[in-house]
Amino acid sequence: MSFIGQNTTRAKQFNRSLVFQTLIRLQSTTRQEIASNTKLTPATITNIVNEFMSEGIVSEAGSRRSESQKAGRKTMMLDLNERARLVAGIHIRSDRVELGIVTLKGNVIAEQQFWLPDGCDQHDFLRLLKDELTVFLRAHEDLTVAAIGIGSVGLVDFERGVLLEAKHLGWNEVALVNELQAEYAVPVYLDHNVRGMALGEKLFGSCKTETDFLSVYMGQGIGAGMYVNDQIYRSDVTGAGELGHATYQPEGEPCWCGNHGCLERYASEEAILSEWGIGSVDELLKAYADGDAQADRALRQAGKQIGIVLTSFVNMFHVNRIIIGGRLAQENTPLLAEVDHHVNTRSFLARKRDVIVSRTSLGEQLGVTGAASVALLYGVISLEIN
Amino acid sequence: MSFIGQNTTRAKQFNRSLVFQTLIRLQSTTRQEIASNTKLTPATITNIVNEFMSEGIVSEAGSRRSESQKAGRKTMMLDLNERARLVAGIHIRSDRVELGIVTLKGNVIAEQQFWLPDGCDQHDFLRLLKDELTVFLRAHEDLTVAAIGIGSVGLVDFERGVLLEAKHLGWNEVALVNELQAEYAVPVYLDHNVRGMALGEKLFGSCKTETDFLSVYMGQGIGAGMYVNDQIYRSDVTGAGELGHATYQPEGEPCWCGNHGCLERYASEEAILSEWGIGSVDELLKAYADGDAQADRALRQAGKQIGIVLTSFVNMFHVNRIIIGGRLAQENTPLLAEVDHHVNTRSFLARKRDVIVSRTSLGEQLGVTGAASVALLYGVISLEIN
DNA sequence: ATTAATAAATTCATTAAATTAATTAAAAGG
DNA sequence: CCTTTTAATTAATTTAATGAATTTATTAAT
Q1: How far are the Cα atoms of A263, A302, A316, B167, B228 from residue A309, in angstroms, in the given order?
Q2: Contacts of A308 in chain B (CB under 8 A)
Q3: What's the pTM value of the predicted model, to 2 decimals?
Q4: Is there a domain that residue A119 lies in?
Q5: Does B386 reside within a domain?
Q6: How far is the CA of A13 from the C1' of C25 (A)?
């Protein structure tokens, strides 16, 4: 519940964040362009850019004559100093943990991962995470990390920085932020992994100019992160974005979640493999690549099912763009095209405007980049909780 | 697309609006209470309240000793001057138009309606609307209207104030705001009717303290208005909130919208009546009141169907509350209880927290109050477009 | 080369609004 | 009547954006 008034401090934070996002979005840009994009005055942009320059985050990169320009002073190009601040991204999946060091432009410049041993309880996990992270950071001592962002599966309390529940792993109330903050003495942020991915997509991916979009991730389950009114949607108690538990068949099999006929029972990696009697995702992808008709059918069917469920969503929220991540969408499979087709033939919105369905542009590093984005935005740029 | 920076003007508008909403929400309140609710300082509240007082919108209403208070100056009670500003609400339905004059506390103090003749084209409509409105306002000359809000069926462009398309009526590009603004010389706002209702629910109904909720309206179709992150969701091109076109049966009958098995084909007034061979909503309600088993079954089935579709939505957006308006939910029918039951047994969120499902507290005047809310908030209180 | 024109960028004074700290107002209770 | 306590206001301060004026840098024309 956030009925909090505005003041100059919050306005400043907001504008700083806005200018930073504009700098990322436009890559190499000018003060003029930032001003017209944010509808702030040139004077204000001068101030904020000066701030960033004195922090070493931005620097001038030679002056150019703009196209429409016949005379007059050349505009000074501005560039993000990509490595002026680095953040660590930690992506906690139910099978393994990915670690990375990420730049201001969202590039992952160091990477590592480790697998969770069977039956790893939450104390073991914390120990293991700290050990691995310490080794990882030490191996890259030249890359100083200014903040740490964690994106985790399960139910997450962003405000308190606690992993409330990770069902598959049997963990509860893991105080990740406190633990890591004590160990590494930098600001730490925890968010749901898929929500982090949406933030990553907004900052660094293909949704930089979108105000309303959906970022879907197909892993063990199917989750979604949402941007609405140009803000991330972060519910209070739980994870939200449980797209996998949207109803596909109202009279379908009961799910552990309480619902019947959940999408996850039809179109998640696990469901597809078991329905078609395939051993692993690798196997499925290989079969498809080899021209196997059944693999093709399996992927198409899943795409259709996801597309149908997304249609309902699009009829409620008129997102311009839907991003799909995860291996089944990542590889060059027909799944994505099927989602696209169904959303764009079935949805109400599509009668007025196409909904762009695309795979993430952040690649395999989506999880790490997303986790890092959270730390970057809140820990490095604006220090706001909004 | 709204990547617009903040400044003091916008901050002020926001705070003014926040204080006003707090005044409505807490009914009779004090400066202290407003300050703690908005997390603004007492000094700021003094300023904003003074502004409202000089405008005649707020007045002091005697001092009381608060409960926790043993000594010290009594707190001054503040009251909204309910009739300091009045706004007109116009609810355009596909069968008729409801007109009303609404106070600062959301009470409808004058009301009237007129029916749309068969085959009424948009020029006839504009003429008819102006005639009826003029007569209505003249009949209540003592009640001066400071702004006009319109809530309409169809696809609406809020920014331009144009009714883009009203399918059932065959209208296109009706420039309602310009037309009425020229005629009545007060600010006019146009929004989608169901979205207006959501705003009404936020300002005056049972969602005053909610930041995320859904307001569903069952009429000819089924629509929804949404509050997310304490903001109304208002998409750019079209209406959004097309709950009636959420998929209920993936392999169901094709709908004109492009989808298959839309909820509207199962659970809208029209669908229910035709499925059970009932002549009118009145008849259905009467049969139910007389203990007719089939009417009971019809209402329960619709409730279940709506509940199932809402479950998918709740699994994506963790709304705390779902409001249902419309005659079938308004009367004391089992429909609402069925929705409640299904959402609270099936949704993921319900495992952590109950979702409150209730009928609107705004009664039959929901549409008019909602339309008026739009004008009130944007035209009278904050003049902001946000 | 000099000058006029033009556009970018900055500076500086102004404005707006919230905050902080100090002050005044009002009431209770010994 | 005096002290204590809380509410409310006032005045000074701070923060940040804006607008106008100015400076800087560049092109093009003379």
Answers
A1: 8, 11, 12, 25, 21
A2: 247, 250
A3: 0.94
A4: yes
A5: no
A6: 38
